[in-house]
Design a protein that fits this description.
427 residues; mainly alpha; 0% strand
Length: 427
């Protein structure tokens, strides 16, 4: 379900993108930033948390919860405002400043008092910078690639984003252990250095962007906020694409909560998060297929196929207790997710005017993070409550997975019904 206004160029796949110097710089900076984000998360929740004394009457889970709230709260508070800000400045400058700021913030840690409140403030400030970085990164993609290459560009970005999740969490602890041998501040130097390296890459990125006129810049931010909302109300294609992305990320948030219990259910006691890793592999595979051969899928309702595939995977999960089947279904789940995420992100970029990119991507970031809080908050308690009600934890998990399967099916059918009438060509 992806509009195409002109035939795809024969060289619009990954090969063409890799010849684009501006895109290569943007993509390289994204890879380094994403890996830095994952390693910083590990640094924050393991080594730093152990060395920064927390209130003695707090439990370990409470300490981690407060820290994670400090990381997620900026997305809710500043997501939309960050998008408005991004539209008023050069995207390249925003990308540079965000990474310089994050790098210097991490490097300043050894100079600050080792107090838990300091750790909370560092986590909060780092997350604030990320809220500005995310919409600027998304808004920069249409500036460096042609319209017919957007699908391939988003596929490559999705591939590397999921690859960074897998690689970052896989090598984060070993890299931090190695950095510890560099000296007392080795770990902070590693993470801060990665952010600074990303900033240098963005600084060297060849990108020419047309500036807004002074009259446009002087418009009050509240006017920008209302303009963004009005645009989303008027453009059903973009708003529905955003709803589909929000539903997709909500399902993965719920799966994150259930990953440990699901892993135990199929016998993955030694590596309970393997299901999330294999789902990431499925997304990488799906994004790679779309990026390289996306022009062959014209007139295919990819997001509907993706939602139905995810619904089938969730239903099979509820009955499976086999490691092989569980891992295979997890890959299938990731493939389905790629059929939703890549085309819908491309729809938003393709259909949104350049002057609205920051606002729209800011709203998207805001909506997704607010929506994520609901499944993160209720999935665990709901599964436990259903398990107690039916007298079996396994049956409670099964009911939740079946409920998610029904929800995903309804969202997919609703989205297709609401958008197919306004699409002339689909992918």
């Amino acid at each position: 379900m992806f509009p195409v206004e002109e035939p795809s160029a024969p060289n619009s796949g990954f090969r063409a993108l890799l010849k684009n110097r501006s895109f290569l710089a943007l993509w390289s900076g994204q890879v380094v930033s994403q890996v830095a984000d994952k390693i910083f998360f590990i640094l924050l929740t393991i080594p730093l948390l152990e060395s920064y004394p927390s209130p003695s009457n707090w439990g370990a889970n409470s300490v981690r919860s407060v820290l994670l709230i400090a990381c997620t709260l900026p997305a809710i508070l500043f997501g939309s405002a960050a998008g408005i800000f991004v539209d008023r400045f050069q995207k390249k400058q925003v990308l540079e400043v965000c990474n310089w700021s994050r790098g210097l913030l991490i490097l300043s840690l050894p100079l600050l008092p080792k107090l838990y409140i300091v750790l909370i403030l560092i986590a909060f400030c780092e997350s604030v910078m990320t809220q500005f970085f995310a919409p600027a990164e998304q808004a920069a993609i249409p500036l460096v690639v042609k319209k017919e290459s957007l699908l391939s560009a988003n596929a490559l970005f999705t591939t590397t984003m999921m690859g960074a999740v897998i690689v970052g969490f896989a090598v984060g602890e070993p890299l931090l252990a190695l950095a510890e041998t560099w000296g007392e501040s080795g770990q902070e130097i590693l993470v801060g250095g990665l952010y600074l390296l990303a900033a240098a890459v963005f600084y060297l990125m060849p990108l020419q962007e047309v500036r807004s006129t002074d009259a446009q810049i002087e418009v009050h931010p509240w006017h920008d906020f209302k303009a963004g909302l009005a645009y989303l109300r008027q453009n059903r294609l973009v708003s529905n694409a955003m709803i589909q992305l929000t539903a997709l990320y909500s399902v993965f948030a719920a799966m994150t909560v259930l990953a440990v219990e699901l892993g135990s259910k199929i016998g993955l006691e030694s590596n309970k998060y393997a299901l999330l890793a294999t789902a990431g592999i499925g997304m990488v595979l799906g994004a790679g297929i779309l990026g390289h051969w996306g022009d062959r899928f014209h007139h295919k309702p990819l997001p509907l196929i993706g939602f139905l595939s995810m619904a089938i995977a969730l239903a099979v999960f509820s009955f499976s207790d086999s490691v092989v089947i569980g891992l295979g279904i997890s890959v299938f789940l990731g493939l389905g997710a790629a059929l939703i995420g890549v085309p819908m992100q491309t729809v938003i970029q393709q259909q949104t005017p350049a002057s609205m990119h920051g606002k729209v991507f800011g709203f998207q970031n805001n909506a997704i993070n607010i929506a994520l809080s609901l499944p993160l908050a209720i999935t665990g308690p709901l599964t436990d409550a259903l398990g107690n009600w039916v007298g079996s934890a396994a049956l409670g998990l099964q009911l939740v997975l079946l409920g998610m399967s029904v929800f995903v099916t309804l969202v997919g059918v609703w989205a297709w019904h609401n958008t197919r009438r306004v699409l002339r060509n689909v992918i």
